[in-house]
């Protein structure tokens, strides 16, 4: 039986000396256990991290000359470290704020189990899913903070380079009916997700923040774009929906798969609906769980880019028809009540009307994906802020969108300056959540 003091702490690091310093010093406030830093940083940060680790007693720096990535780094540790009992894996952006957590995990793990930590349901590709009691769903042990038995881990597929690096091991357990070897702890769930006050561990990259599933978003984005390139040209009609583009799949879906279940929004506001891809997603994801009220605002006359002579000239009447057809599909066969409010009109007017009706501090989620002109985006953000509850999340699409190449671009014809200005001005009222840069998410922290 492993003694708690013999459990090694294992972290995979890449380019962030500051995080590693915080992590190690916070561990040392409570534990003298061996610490392994498996590092694939670039030259400069690598040297800094090495010096930090070398200063510590009972800590070892294991260096790779390339970014080893989270999954392969863990796999290397599982195969090669000279340990055979339990090992604690934790993300490099963790800070321990109270001792006693390792003991609590150790008590639960036992000798036969694979690991203990946060377990959630994913599909076979590692993306979060929310339909309960579906035998296809796979229990996924989140590697951000997990205590595992190394011998048991060695019997199953090792972590891989993937946004959900534990996926192969989890599929192995699932397919052989061994998911009971995984143990869930509610406080780990809370600390890893980082939406509530931390119990033992502050998840810095996430603070007040969403879990990213894989933590290495480049890996998520790579696997996502691989997936997309494999399906390019395929029929875009899914589940009887009629969509003529993949904007939502390209920029939002992977983030929303993670974000939306965490915040479980009940009152939602979308500015810019087009054919309804994002709205259908929200209905499909949420309306099996609880009642929702969804407000969709659109002029259905398109942005400048959709109008005659624009870069994406489009028949907006057909778009509007498809929006209504898609909504009918989304609304059918849902267990829960969906209060869908369609507001056809310019967002500044509709948003002002909603404020005038007393819906300030009302919405849990505000999605800004309407006009891409900076003054309009700024107006949507400022009015949307009024409508957003404290604790609610505002999401901006197209942070990096611009209609023209960089050399011809006008500063005010794209969303970025507006999003930057808004977040600067609301600096102490909105906390930005880390996510791939194409979209920006921020949580309201006060009025
Ligand atoms: C990028 S699309 C929205 C995409 C949609 N969210 C999706 O996931 O498929 C932008 C939409 O914003 C609408 N729009 C542009 N300017 C607007 C404004 N000032 N007020 C309301 N809607 C606007 C356009 O008509 C267009 O349908």
Number of helices: 14
**The CATH top-level class label of the largest domain:** Alpha Beta
The stretches of 5 or more residues where confidence is low (pLDDT under 50) are: 206-237
Number of strands: 18
Question: In what order do the strands lie side by side in the largest sheet?
Answer: 3-2-1-4-9-6-10
**Multimerization state:** single chain
Q: Main beta sheet, described?
A: 7 strands, mixed
Indicate the structural class.
alpha/beta
As for the number of domains, it is 2
Overall pLDDT confidence: 86
CA-CA gap between termini: 52 Å
- What would CATH call the architecture of the largest domain? 3-Layer(aba) Sandwich
CATH superfamily of the largest domain: Vaccinia Virus protein VP39
Q: Which fold name is given in CATH as the topology of the largest domain? A: Rossmann fold
Radius of gyration: 23 Å
Shape descriptor reads: globular
Bound molecules: S-adenosylmethionine
Helix content: 25-40%
Beta-sheet strand percentage? 15-25%
Describe this entry's structure for a reader.
α11 (316-331) links the parallel β13 (292-298) and β14 (338-344). A seven-stranded mixed β-sheet has the order 3-2-1-4-9-6-10, sandwiched between helices. It has a seven-stranded mixed β-sheet with strand order 14-13-12-15-16-18-17, sandwiched between helices. α9 packs parallel to α10 (277-286), α10 packs parallel to α11 and α13 runs parallel beside α14 (415-425). By secondary structure, the protein is an alpha/beta fold. It has helices at residues 17-28, 43-54, 70-80, 101-109, 150-154, 167-175, 186-193, 217-231, 247-263, 277-286, 316-331, 347-356, 374-387, 415-425; strands at 9-13, 35-39, 59-63, 86-90, 94-96, 115-117, 119-122, 138-141, 145-149, 182-184, 201-203, 267-271, 292-298, 338-344, 363-368, 388-396, 430-433, 440-444. The protein binds S-adenosylmethionine. S-adenosylmethionine binds next to α9, α10 and β13.
């Amino acid at each position: 039986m492993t003694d708690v003091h013999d459990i090694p702490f294992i972290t995979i690091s890449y380019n962030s000396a500051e995080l590693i310093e915080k992590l190690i010093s916070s561990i040392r406030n409570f534990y003298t256990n061996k610490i392994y830093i498996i590092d694939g940083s670039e030259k400069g940060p690598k040297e800094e991290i090495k010096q930090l680790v070398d200063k510590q007693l009972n800590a070892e720096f294991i260096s790779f000359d390339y970014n080893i990535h989270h999954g392969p780094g863990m796999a290397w540790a599982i195969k090669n470290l000279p340990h055979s009992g339990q090992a604690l894996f934790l993300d490099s952006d963790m800070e321990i704020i109270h001792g006693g957590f390792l003991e609590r995990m150790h008590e639960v793990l036992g000798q036969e189990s694979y690991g203990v930590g946060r377990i959630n349901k994913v599909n076979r590709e590692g993306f979060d899913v929310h339909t309960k009691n579906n035998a296809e769903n796979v229990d996924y042990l989140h590697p951000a903070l997990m205590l595992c038995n190394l011998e048991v881990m060695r019997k199953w597929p090792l972590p891989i380079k993937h946004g959900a690096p534990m996926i192969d091991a989890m599929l192995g357990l699932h397919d052989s009916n061994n998911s009971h070897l995984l143990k869930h702890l509610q406080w780990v769930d809370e600390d890893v997700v980082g939406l509530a006050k931390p119990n033992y561990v502050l998840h810095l990259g996430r603070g007040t923040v969403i879990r990213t599933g894989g933590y290495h978003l480049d890996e998520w984005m790579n696997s996502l774009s691989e997936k997309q390139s494999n399906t390019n040209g395929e029929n875009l009609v899914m589940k009887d929906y009629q969509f003529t583009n993949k904007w939502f799949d390209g920029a939002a879906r992977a983030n929303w798969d993670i974000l939306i279940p965490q915040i479980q929004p009940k009152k939602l506001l979308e500015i810019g609906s087009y054919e309804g891809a994002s709205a259908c997603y929200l209905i499909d994801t949420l309306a099996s769980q609880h009642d929702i009220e969804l407000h969709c605002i659109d002029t259905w006359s398109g942005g400048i880019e959709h109008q005659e002579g624009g870069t994406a000239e489009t028949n907006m009447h057909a778009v509007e028809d498809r929006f209504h057809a898609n909504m009918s599909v989304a609304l059918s066969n849902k267990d829960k009540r969906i209060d869908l409010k369609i507001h056809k009109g310019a967002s500044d007017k509709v948003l002002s009307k909603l404020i005038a009706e007393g819906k300030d501090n009302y919405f849990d989620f505000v999605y800004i994906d309407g006009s891409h002109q900076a003054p309009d985006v700024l107006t949507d953000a400022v009015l949307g802020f009024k409508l957003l509850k404290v604790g609610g999340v505002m999401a901006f699409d197209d942070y990096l969108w611009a209609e023209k190449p960089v050399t011809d671009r006008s500063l005010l014809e794209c969303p970025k300056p507006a999003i930057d200005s808004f977040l600067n001005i609301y600096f102490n009222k909105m906390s930005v959540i880390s996510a791939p840069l194409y979209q920006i998410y921020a949580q309201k922290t006060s009025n």
